[in-house]
């Protein structure tokens, strides 16, 4: 069969540095040959991966880069983001074709903007361990620390997809957690709200961040999504049982990956009945900024011993801290009392004398979901 008769160009256009074609095909082998004959770099053995998409009637979005239009930033080529949309009865993300050229483990981070939280329907769902204290050394190695935590979570839950963030956005009226710049309705439009419309276009949505890490033969199917009930966690909430951990059912989505560096007060205590474990803001009011993890896929792996930097056992994934890594409160100068067993932090703050830093996972890649 002639390759030209098996492949049809449905549309073509130029955007920024890209020359884009939308293709349909009736036969996977012919599509593979057509792509190679027309200068597209596709991995060897792509035909079996193309076949289910061809048989399912999928269209193919292919792009060539015009090197003359590429912008250089600090000597590195920086490609423009591509935004496109389509309608489908099934809410899924094709990933199998992208696995063909994998030489090892690869990270996939999906951010879903929708009216509700989403999770995967065809793989195991877990949430990242959250809301525990870490040693001060994590401050300078946060990405490396988080990569170690993520890897231990995956070891305990092989083949799973990890929920790292699920939060209800309320622009201009809510700042918890506070990004450097609060999202606006224009930001929502840039991310596709102008197409989806409704409350999402007004900046009222749930942002879900899902993280998968896999090798060439690990994922047997595309990611297929389903609606999920709201959860909360990572908010420094205390009860009689102690500090919250993990994710709990809630009326509204407020879950984040959050880790704290606490600094016990080591100065003199002159009050009559000083009490440890009542956390508040720094005495000088000099709050420190939240640190967000970034470039997680490039963080060094295998060099940090997670057990030596965490300050509690991670019951969520069955991981224990090192036996010599028990948290202790220093004796303050000018005070004679024992630290009450089970003393609990109250309130939420950070800085000298309270919480020295809050480390929160940042955000990343995007899928929009229209309200059904």
What is the structure about, briefly put?
The protein has 372 residues and is α+β, with helices and mostly antiparallel strands.
- Summarize the biggest pleated sheet: 8 strands, mixed
State the end-to-end distance.
41 Å
Q: Which stretches are low in confidence, meaning pLDDT under 50 for 5 or more residues running?
A: 333-356
> Can you count the helices?
6
Cα-atom radius of gyration: 25 Å
Strand content: 25-35%
Give the rounded overall mean pLDDT: 82
Order of helices and strands: HEEHHEEEEEEEEHEHHEEEEEEEEEEE
Percent helix range: 10-25%
The number of strands is 22
Based on Cα principal axes, name the global outline.
elongated
Structural class, from secondary structure content? alpha+beta
Structure, described:
- Helix content is 15%, strand content 28%.
- It has a domain at 1-82.
- α2 (28-37) packs across α3.
- The strands form six sheets. Strands 7, 9, 11, 12, 14, 17, 18 and 22 form an eight-stranded mixed β-sheet that branches. Strands 10-19-21-20 form a four-stranded mixed β-sheet. It has a three-stranded antiparallel β-sheet with strand order 1-2-3.
- It is built from six helices and 22 strands.
- The chain has 372 residues and is an alpha+beta fold.
- The longest helix has 15 residues, at 142-156.
- The radius of gyration is 25 Å and the shape is elongated.
